[in-house]
């Protein structure tokens, strides 16, 4: 999202002027991204121009973060092999592997053996 005035054009998904912040490398769908350390995965992906985080189980429509505070579940992604992670609540760390979540996650049926 950008403002209309070219003199004050800003993006809501850009880092603030702190250029001394350390960056970490993450991978989204195989693409390496350098992002500021300490921000959420959702923020990192939005800053990197990712706009589709998952697809819906019924229609396959693309979804992206909405609330950015863990209420809506629109930002679900697979992080380091674990599906169904709320990317707005998970801080980035160096080497993190993130994948777009396609449809619903498979849940293991309880085996009854504890």
Describe the structure.
- The structure is a single chain.
- This protein is mostly beta strands.
- It contains one helix and seven strands; from the N terminus they run ββαβββββ.
- Strands 1, 2, 3, 4, 5, 6 and 7 form a seven-stranded mixed β-sheet that branches.
- The protein is globular and about 40 Å long.
Summary keywords:
single chain, seven-stranded mixed beta sheet, mainly beta, 114 residues, globular
Mean pLDDT over the full residue set: 85
> Helix amount, in percent?
under 10%
Number of strands: 7
Overall 3D form: globular
Strand content: 25-35%
Topology (SSEs and partners):
Elements: E1 23-28, E2 31-36, H1 41-47, E3 54-55, E4 62-63, E5 76-79, E6 82-86, E7 97-102
How would you briefly describe this protein structure?
This protein has 114 residues and is mainly β. 6% of the residues lie in helices and 27% in strands.
């Amino acid at each position: 999202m950008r403002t209309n005035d070219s003199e004050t054009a800003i993006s809501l998904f850009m880092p603030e002027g702190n250029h001394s912040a350390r960056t970490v490398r993450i991978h989204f769908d195989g693409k390496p991204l350098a992002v500021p350390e300490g921000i959420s995965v959702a923020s990192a992906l939005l800053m990197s121009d990712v706009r589709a985080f998952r697809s819906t189980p019924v229609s396959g429509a693309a979804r992206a973060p909405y609330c950015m505070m863990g209420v809506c579940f629109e930002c679900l992604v697979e992080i380091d092999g674990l599906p169904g992670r709320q990317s707005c609540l998970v801080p980035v760390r160096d080497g993190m592997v993130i994948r777009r979540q396609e449809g619903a996650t498979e849940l293991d049926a309880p085996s009854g053996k504890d």
